[in-house]
Design a protein that fits this description.
Blueprint lengths: L56 E3 L18 H8 L7 E6 L9 H10 L3 E7 L15 H21 L3 E4 L5 E2 L7 H18 L4 E5 L9 E2 L4 H11 L4 E6 H6 L4 H8 L3 E6 L19 H13 L6 E3 L8 H20 L3 H10 L2 H14 L8
Parallel strand pairs: 1-10, 2-3, 3-4, 4-6, 6-8, 8-9, 9-10
Antiparallel strand pairs: 5-7
Length: 380
């Protein structure tokens, strides 16, 4: 079993190195290089939006099923959803669920052509394991089912290559347990480590990320239930193309401060999902970004700037009773506003406040930043 870091070793991943070795038998990649590569993950620049904003914007595709009475056409197929989402001003990319948005609908090539038709690109491919994995995906007790889950995960990477993106986000609704003594925690952890190593080595050109969640109606306790546990998993997997996707709502559900969680992930933060929520009874509300916790939203953007985030902004929200196109447009505007407000913060002032633990000055900083709003131009 992998030796796990303890105590002070579980720190920001900004300077960690990758190690280990693996032989690739799938995906056409080269053997994994076990040498010291210095930084935690290969540096890359984010793809800007069409109007020059530093990041592309994407939004939850399934949200386009909401309020069908406001749609100007059907909302039953992925093609319908892409067509409707393309109407939202400010969106640049689409994150597809795999296999949900492909099997029985269209090929990855057809999805790519549809994106081109509507002036969009693929942002990422996100795993959504079917209900037959209700007892676990990479953690299923049956080794044949675990193998099927891993093969499905790598098939998502094949789809990503066709779509022209290099990100695969893994969130499993089923990898966890409900009761004490139900699973062997160490065994489940090692199953995840080995599965992700296999995926990373087979597809070295793909950026694999885990999206953790603390609890869900399908699984009361996940194998990876917090940012701290997710950081530990990144250390154990020990591959430069493995990192994290952090969802603001999931961090709030975990009782975390999202800004601190982003700092913990450092340069291994491959993706971010923006939303907000009241988190009553550990519910995932999926509200408009910054609508409930504006101060935290401002710090999220400040920390994303500090860690050199290079992914895209994805809105994992649930409009349900609201026009999903208008809601997506509002999310874009609010993300831009908070990003610009964070750009206007004085780094020296922020560092002074932190060094003195000055709570009143921190609250005043947030109040002034949000009252100014986002500026135009400059370092956005």
């Amino acid at each position: 079993r992998a030796e796990r870091p303890v105590g002070g070793e579980v720190e920001s991943l900004l300077g960690s190195a990758a190690g280990g070795a693996g032989t690739v038998s799938r995906g056409g990649g080269a053997d994994h290089d076990g040498g010291d590569e210095g930084d935690a993950a290969p540096q890359r620049r984010p793809r800007p939006s069409r109007d020059g904003f530093p990041f592309m914007f994407g939004s939850r595709l399934n949200s386009m099923r909401d309020r069908p009475d406001l749609a100007d056409g059907p909302v039953s197929t992925p093609r319908d959803l892409v067509r409707r989402q393309a109407k939202a001003r400010g969106l640049d990319c689409v994150d597809f669920n795999y296999p949900q948005h492909f099997d029985g609908h269209w090929s990855a090539e057809e999805a790519r052509d549809c994106l081109e038709e509507h002036g969009l690109v693929a942002g990422a491919v996100c795993l959504r394991y079917p209900p037959r994995f209700a007892r676990g995906a990479m953690n299923h007790p049956d080794p044949e089912m675990r193998r099927e889950a891993i093969e499905m995960t790598m098939a998502a990477a094949d789809a990503a290559r066709v779509l022209g993106c290099d990100e695969v986000v893994v969130w499993s609704a089923y990898d966890g347990y409900d009761y004490p003594f139900q699973v062997d925690y160490d065994e489940k952890w090692e199953q995840l480590v080995e599965a992700f190593r296999e995926c990373c080595d087979a597809y070295p050109d793909v950026r694999w990320s885990l999206e953790y969640k603390p609890t869900d109606e399908n699984t009361r306790y996940f194998t990876v239930p917090s940012t701290g546990a997710a950081v530990l998993l990144v250390r154990d997997v020990d591959r430069t193309n493995f990192g994290l996707t952090l969802d603001v709502g999931h961090m709030l559900m975990s009782g975390e401060n999202p800004g601190q969680s982003i700092a913990m992930a450092g340069r291994r933060l491959f993706g971010v999902q923006l939303n907000d929520g009241h988190t009553r009874l550990a519910a995932e509300d999926g509200l408009v970004f910054g609508s409930v916790h504006p101060g935290m939203a401002l710090e999220v953007m400040w920390r994303l700037r500090r860690v050199g985030f290079a992914g895209h902004f994805y809105f994992d929200t649930f409009p349900q009773r609201t026009d999903p196109v208008a809601e997506a447009e509002l999310n874009v505007r609010r993300a831009r506003m908070f990003w610009d407000a964070a750009a206007g913060l004085d780094r020296g002032e922020v560092e002074r406040i932190a060094s003195e633990h000055d709570a009143m000055a921190a609250l005043d900083l947030v109040e002034r930043a949000l009252s100014r709003g986002g500026g135009e131009g400059g370092d956005r």
